[in-house]
Amino acid sequence: xxxxxxxxxxxxxxxxxQTFDQMYSHNPNSTAVANLMGWRNMRNPRGGFExxxxxxxxxxxxxxxxxxxxxxxxxxxxxxxxxVLNRNxxxxxxxxxxxxxxxxxxxxxxxxSGGIVHIFAGEFxxxxxxxxDYNYPFLAWTKRF
Length: 145
Prior knowledge:
- By secondary structure, the protein is mainly β.
- The chain has one domain.
- Helix content is about 5%, strand content about 50%.
- The model has no long low-confidence stretch (mean pLDDT about 85).
């Protein structure tokens, strides 16, 4: 279980940037959803499980809910780009996400991961004319030095 909060800017026209500013755009140890959702103006309760299927094979599944901290600031992606801004929205619920990831440890320093994320559009996205749910398949490798 986990809960993350990254502040938004409730007065973004005052000339002062108050949105949480994430230092790095990607966290390779996080779930796949973290690559889609930026850590700005966001609240995220998460629950998940991790199973060791075999000595070198791990499977992880997570369920996430994503909310804006304030509708007066935008919904951002992981690279800090504003994707949707709707100050007239009555809901802060961006959406729900389910993801499954499999990781295979090839060597002590090299692993390969793959999986899929499904995003269910929330009321904020629907009110902002971004109605579509979507799938995000991914494949990645990690090299430790």
